Amino acid sequence: MLLCPLLYFITGAVGGRFLRAAPASAPLARRTSMDELYGNDLYQAVMRRRSVRKYTGQPLTDTQRAAVEAAVAAIVPLNNCAHAFELLPVGETTAKFGTDCLAVYGPDEPDGWLNTGYMLEQLDLRLQLAGLGACWYGMARPKREGGALPYHILMTFGNCDPSLFRSGPADFNRRPAEELWPDEFDPAVRTAALLAPSACNSQPWFVKSEGGALTVCRRVAAKSIIPPSKKPFFGNIDCGIFLLVLETALRHAGYRFVRRMLPRTVCGGLESLAEYTVSKE
User: What's the chain's Rg over C-alpha atoms?
Assistant: First the structure.
């Protein structure tokens, strides 16, 4: 077992492998920044990503598997919530497609769910940049769950036909920007950020922009087929995804920003999540 202050790698006892586990005490300041890890390349994946459900069945090569493990090890968390990742063959889960899966574990609370969305979307985009299909799989789970943290969600992935990826924003089915981000802001950033994926395409986010500040909220009563009891879970994961995609779009457009997580207060059906102070480079 290799130990370091931020994460550790262990061999799981249930067949899968824990690629990373980080305690809640691991300080964000000591983690590598998103800029150092990714630069602007994630933006290209945002423009073309698709939730892939059809795979060739061809196993990952050793090179592909090493790239997946490196991508998992490089994931940047949103907050200090404890988390763990477990890599599993699809046969050790209840997922019905893909060849491999990554299970995510974390605290069973809104900030933990938000963190999971932010972290796992990084892998989603990195997989698609590498030509691998990927899909958030909210209704599947490991057949035997490992680790001390509650299970959150699964991402399934594998080799797929490259033609399945989208060609650009026109291929996406999303709500009009006026519904989710009615205030004026850089239209390229708005367009890219609102391409973020969400459970059942519910798009539970809302953005307010005034001057150099953006405020991101969760639409508590966003309409969808998701059962009401599960809306906080999926809504927070989705909003974590949105924060990652928003930041990717801002970086690509040449903006600097400082993110500040907000106290969770609900007003007018909107739960405050994060505020960004934005400036042009």
Answer: 18
Chain centroid to Cα 101, Å, comes to 15
* Continuous segment of H or E residues that includes residue 56: none
Entry pTM: 0.88
Beta strands in 138-280 (DSSP E): 151-159, 205-210, 213-219, 255-261, 266-267, 270-280
Q: Is the pLDDT of residue 27 over 70?
A: no
Quote the DSSP letter at residue 31: S
Question: Which candidate, 212, 193, 214, places its Cα nearest to that of 280?
Answer: 212
Q: pLDDT tens, 135-176?
A: 999 999 999 976 789 999 999 999 999 888 877 787 787 888
DSSP assignment of 123-167, as one string?
HHHHHHHTTEEEEEETT--BSS--SSSPEEEEEEEEE--GGGS-S
pLDDT at residue 52, rounded to an integer: 87
